[in-house]
Amino acid sequence: MKLTRLIFATLLGALIALPAFAFDTKARAAWVYDVTTKTVLLDKNADIPLPPASMSKLMTLDLLFEALEDGRITMDTTFPVSAHAQSMGGSTMFLNTTDRPAVKDLIQGIIINSGNDACVTIAEGLAGSEPAFAKLMTERAHELGMKNSMFANASGWPDPGQRMSMHDLGIVADRIITHFPQYYHFFSETHFNYKDRAPANAQNRNPLLEIKAADWKADGMKTGHTQESGYGLVGSAVMGNRRILFILSGLDSEAARAQEGEAVANWAFRQFVMKDVAKAGTQLAQASVWLGAQSSVGLAPESDLSLLIPANAQDKVKAEAVFDGPVSAPIKKGQKLGKLVITVPGLDAPREVALVAENDVKRGGFMVRVKAAIARLGGKAFTAAMQKVNS
After folding, report:
1. How many other C-beta atoms are found inside a 10 Å radius of the C-beta of residue 281?
2. For residues 352 and 98, which has the higher predicted lDDT (pLDDT)?
3. Which positions, given as ranges, span the membrane (predicted)?
4. What is the residue-wise DSSP string for 18-81?
């Protein structure tokens, strides 16, 4: 068997020629991700654990959504408010110990009001105490691959034991978007005033939700701010059939957060082109067949593959069909025989899609096997004769 590599220089065709550039963000740390194609567009200090401020509330929400999903609670479940929850400073829903807020109220209080009291109420309601819930947050985060996260509380209140990387925030944000779409609409809501107690804190702090003129639309997810962390944003936006996530930390003002969030979204949507690079069933190569009723079989992608391409990199994209050949008959239609490997400069690891047989190939009859045997013997005889001549 012999490894074969076929390079397709023109597989992708021509792309729109726009000037692509690496985005020079003012954020101390950033991670930008195309959810649709699972492509990392920007990584700046993204795996460094940093104080996440209220952006860590996404982890609290993830555990809450898991409890809803498995039926431990419903949207109408109510929780008591402890003196500890009522005493929380910073952003709150203004809960008191006589309240019994429903889960739906608490979700809105966390997302829209950034309510620290709401987070403590959820933590105590689900785990008995906030420290116990913080331990569950850390354990669950690590199970989800968030290796640079640890939690000391449910709200993001400043604590040396409260740390998340921007990449980890991206992991939990992407999980909420893709795994809990039934709850995602809460992130685009702009106003919530529990029992008319907090008119001054009733507006969602996400500055991108108010943008109306762009051809993309922001619909989430969470802001954060402490003196130590600076101003941060976990943002998500859609344009056409693309969704992006962008996580920013360490900006020096609300205005800078708003400007940088909008600039990153514009860059992510404008400087990359989504291109169909492989179509299921389209023959891309042929593999020789050993002892088959036909001498070759067509190779086609098993599934469609779309990729984001930097707009100025169309002539640098490399596509290879990689397979071992000749392939021994019999062969079944759809049998995996190799892979198509696409390499895009400046983006993350190469993407692959399986190459499968286009059709069945039966084992050859008697004469096919005889000819193969003669060819093999002829090759051996030729080799022996050459060795004799050279000796």
Report:
1. 12
2. 98
3. none
4. ---------SSEEEEEETTTTEEEEEESTTS-B--GGGGHHHHHHHHHHHHHTTS--TT-B---
